[in-house]
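Incident log, structure service

09:12 report received: a user says their structure output differs between two submissions of the same chain.
09:20 pulled the input from the user's history:
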Amino acid sequence: MAVETLSLAGKTALVTGSGKENGIGSAIARTLARNGASVAIHYASEHSKARAEKVAMDISREFGTKTTVVQGRVESYDSGKRMVEQILDAFSVDHIDILVNNAATSCNVPIMEVTAEQLEYEFGVNVFGMIYITQAVVGVGQMPRGGRIINIGSIASRLLGPPPVYSATKAAQDALTTLWAGELGTSHGITVNTIAPGPVPTEMSKSILEEPDGSPTALHTALFAQTRAGNRLGTVEDIADATLLLVSEKSRWITAQWISVSGGITGTI
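09:34 re-ran on a clean worker, output below:
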């Protein structure tokens, strides 16, 4: 009897916001590629181009899998559509099997100080962007039955802690996961789930977890105290491995779920 695996051989994946070598997105891309998927690395701004290209090159060199690099603003449907068309052409395929909505931004300011521009940008990337990319991948990318959509959320949506606008955008994502799971499951045979990381040290989370002098913030200390699985914060690999489980064929009956990958944090802030 053949040993069952989590192989993604023959699958094509897009991981948004995966162009930084030390981020959650690139770790997910590496893990999908390690298990056989062709992976599109996405970045938004021109100053991230070199880093994204290096992520793709390193993945191809290490795992021998196909990669491509696409640039675009997720908060624009036209940009998302163009990126999907580029991915199909680069891999010579007619569909995308896996979408990981990882691209995100956070304006870590109190609610009374947030500006209209910050609100529009944060909701644009974190909420509207997720909608537009999903529309492009399912529509133009013709995601087939058995397709997988993973939305990278945050335990912030349930803990109701700072930053306030970011937490609100992640709560909106949670609602979309449940709604899409019903709509895309019955009509397209696609599963949709949210993976909600706990505290993971990355460039984006640095201002939330670390004071200017390098000491842990009060939030960092509070979350660390609630971690049950081990005496540490999470790692990007922890999030990537959980993603692998949910995009595999073995997750066919798991959808509309919010799955905390936080080492067991359950309390409120």
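09:41 both user submissions now match this output. Likely a transient worker issue. Closing.
09:42 reviewer note: The first helix runs from residue 24 to 34. The CA atoms of residues 96 and 143 lie 5 Å apart.
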